[in-house]
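Lecture notes, unit on binding sites. The following record was shown on slide 14. It pairs a sequence with nicotinamide-adenine-dinucleotide.
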Amino acid sequence: MTNTLNDRLTRDLSGRATNILRALGAELPPPGELPARTPITGGLLTTLPATMPADADAAIGRAAEAFRGWRTVPAPVRAAVVRRLAELLTAHKTELGELVTLEAGKIGPEAVGEVQEMIDVCEFAIGLSRQLYGRTMPSERPGHRLMETWHPLGVVGVISAFNFPVAVWAWNTAIALVCGDTVVWKPSETTPLTALACHSLLRRAAVDVGADPEVHQLIQGGAEVGARLVDDERVALLSATGSVRMGRTVAPKVAARFGRCLLELGGNNGAIVTPTADLELASRAIVFAAAGTAGQRCTTLRRLIAHADIVGPLLRQLENAYGQLPVGNPLHEGMLVGPLINESAYTAMRSALDRALSDGGELVCGGERVDVHGDNAFYVRPAIVRMPTQTGVVRDETFAPILYVLTYRDFDHAIALHNGVPQGLSSAIFTADQREAERFLAADGSDCGIANVNIGTSGAEIGGAFGGEKHTGGGRESGSDSWKAYMRRATNTVNYSPDLPLAQGIKFT
Ligand code: NAD
């Protein structure tokens, strides 16, 4: 009976996905070998063809050809495509958000928030199109001008992860397009339908403003399809978002052909809670950062480093809040924790919890599976585990809602614990002590790409550069001066004098 109901629900969700794709103007491909599943029931929404190697190569070729024209279109004119994309995204925000929920399992508000993030980065890119500034430097030679100019780079390959199936694409694509690059996108094989929708909206935007739609190409499939972008010399920049394991494979290959890599890899984000912290504010921020998106954000809070004097009351607040978290179908209003993406995410969570307990950890709450839509859907209660020390399992990123709690007495020890993991994406401190806050942000404080005070580790705005250090890969995307990764720089010296003075006063007569 339950199975029948779940099958019926999957059919309903499949119909919804198809209707959304139609409403977004996406061409539905014929059935193929690539399954599109929904984590809501674990059922199959549809299948579509994976891109064959020769077709992926051809797509790169089309992007390379389109680049030849696109690079000479003035940047503010290129921005028209991005402006139109933002309009289309605004018009279809609800539908695209629902598709994200169907495919990635995000609760409604987070899914729509992800689409809003796409619109935000489009707006940023439109303004940026008039601000691709180069500098002019004083020349040491009379009658000379010394300056830097920025030029389009070429084809940008974008490999993205399942958990931000649309925003990460927009971060890269909106910026790359105004910078004069063309894009070939290989989305996660887990989220091919949202990719189809975005691709179709962008091509429509290009057509609507009279630009070449070939500036964007979509190739679909797993690692073997992504590998075409990794190995192809025509791909000038590979922007790869995903696990450290993936980054370890692709980065050396791109380096070996002297290509550029922008890596946005796994995080293992920590927050320090000091004795002066506002515990009420801290616990609200911690619950969102640790349990939101069912622990499947790169910026999810995974390690809580709490002062011994407040760890007891803080844990009581967290346990109480975790006990009230609604876990279930992310399409339902009021739901806060949706499903894990698939069974292997659940297996990884179980095995991390087992490791933590055998390392002396004490389960505070959560970790159990919740039956929402049958055996093929993987819903869990977010877990909190108190750890005696930062053992191996705590140093790994497990892409699931597990919050490890460590205790400190001395602030230097807290910083050492915080920085004592291989990853370096996001971090936070909760304190009312300005010395501690400033120390956390200083050179000998947090070693992460993102360091926050009195706010959680997740939920970044697009205006700042996003990315992390160490095994997170060092890339920066989205706001600030991240655009520089998508362009090449030329240093130009212009001699407007009748003489030929050499630099460093060298005489060559
Ligand atoms: P994943 O590494 O399994 O896959 C990511 C993408 O890489 C997919 O498109 C996949 O097909 C592709 N891929 C994998 N191996 C490849 C190879 N050898 N060659 C070419 N392509 C390859 O990651 P996932 O499970 O989809 O996502 C979760 C991971 O992504 C987590 O580690 C998370 O922290 C990370 N992530 C990081 C950021 C960030 O900005 N730092 C953002 C989102 C997700």
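Take-home: The CA atoms of residues 155 and 235 lie 5 Å apart.
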